[in-house]
Amino acid sequence: MHIAMIAGSNRQNATSTSVLRYIETILKARNIQVSFIDLAVVRLPLFSPDAEDVHPEADFMIRSVKQADGLILATPEYHGSISGSLKNALDYLDNSHVAGKPVLTVSSAGGRLGVSSLVHLQSIIRNLHGILSPEWISIGDGHPLFDRDGAPRDPEILQRIDQAVEQFIELVRKLGNDTQPRKVMMES
Ligand SMILES: Cc1cc2nc3c(=O)[nH]c(=O)nc-3n(C[C@H](O)[C@H](O)[C@H](O)COP(=O)(O)O)c2cc1C
């Protein structure tokens, strides 16, 4: 199994990115291959349909998404929506990269919940013909997941993340099985 993860915050020590890093440890512990694209590190040029060449960093992202069995996307909540960085990255993609793939969405908001950004993100995924994972992850109050010494601030939140990731992996597995050639039962 191969999962592509895109961290949509253009901020050092972003909460949404730290959630993805935590999820990455869960996936790697299960020997799941991960491509991690951190948009605070990978500076994608502003997407233009007129561009003749694909920027190498954008090309890496597109290939990672295309090869992946599922995607995990994270965004900070900005003005009730997703970050400009993530929207710009998603504009590089089309249905041929995303269609039929499970997508887990994650947001971090300054308020109690980042539902608005998640709804917008899920609408984009629908337009790319991706399949939404049953649960989403919203981290409120902008708190980092862990203290400086690495201790979880709120074990309940980690538990909820674990559960959402579990359902996502299960969905990727189920859909992966569906793409296997079906055995034809021959009548004797
Ligand atoms: C430009 C901007 C707009 C924001 N808009 C919202 C908002 O609409 N709702 C909200 O709850 N928090 C808002 N915030 C706060 C961020 O969502 C919050 O700091 C979040 O934790 C940032 O996520 P990150 O640490 O992953 O970058 C905004 C912050 C910025 C910089």
TrEMBL record:
Among the GO molecular function terms of this UniProt record, one is: azobenzene reductase (NADP+) activity
Give the EC number: 1.7.1.6
What transmembrane ranges does the database entry give? none
Q: Which UniProt keywords are present, listed alphabetically?
A: Oxidoreductase
Q: Please report the stretch or stretches of sequence annotated as the NADPH-dependent FMN reductase-like domain.
A: 1-142
Q: What is the enzyme's class at the highest EC level?
A: oxidoreductase
Spell out the GO cellular component terms annotated for this protein, sorted alphabetically and separated by semicolons.
cytosol
Q: Which family does it belong to?
A: Belongs to the azoreductase type 2 family.
In its UniProt entry, the species of origin is given as Brevibacillus aydinogluensis
- Keyword Oxidoreductase present in the record's keywords: the answer is yes
List the InterPro entries hit by this protein, alphabetically: Flavoprotein-like_sf, FMN_Rdtase-like_dom, NAD(P)H-dep_reductase
This chain's protein is named NAD(P)H-dependent oxidoreductase
